[in-house]
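Course assignment 3, question 2. Fill in each field.
Student: A.L.
Task: Predict the tertiary structure for the chain below.
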Amino acid sequence: MEIYKSEGYVDVKYNEELKSLLVNWKFFGNEVRNSCQAQLDFIKTNEVKSIIVDTSEATGIVKASDQIWFYNYLFPEFEKNGIETIVTITSKDALTRLSNKTWSNTGKSFAIKFIETPSVESAISKLKKYIHNLAVVL
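Answer field:
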C-alpha cells in the first residue's frame, strides 16, 4: 500500500506482513520532513513496528536542521507510537552514507533499535528473524 510519493525523491509503502514501512529514497532534499511526517501520521493510525529506509541508490544529505528535527521531534514520536526498529540499507554514495550514520547515531538516544544492512532482502530477513524471536519470547 502506497503511503507517500514524491517523484524523484522518495516513495513510502506499507508491508502489512512485516508491520513495516518501506521508505525508498532517491534524493535527499526538501522532501525529508514531508515524507517523515507522512510516515508518522500513518504510524499513529496503523500498526507499524519497523521502518526499512532504503538509501542504496540515494544521493544527497539530510540537512543538519532536519537531523535536529529527528532528535527533537521525529524519533520521540516514533518511539511513543510503537516503532521498535529502523533498518537502513546503506547508500553507495559516500556522503549519503555519512548522513545515514548521523541519524543512526542520533537514534541511539531512544528505545529504537537501529540496524544497517546492505540490501532490502537482508533487512526483511533480519526483521522476520526479529519478529520470530519476539513471538518465541512471548
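Instructor remarks: DSSP finds four helices and six strands in the chain. The chain has a mean pLDDT of 90.
Grade: pending
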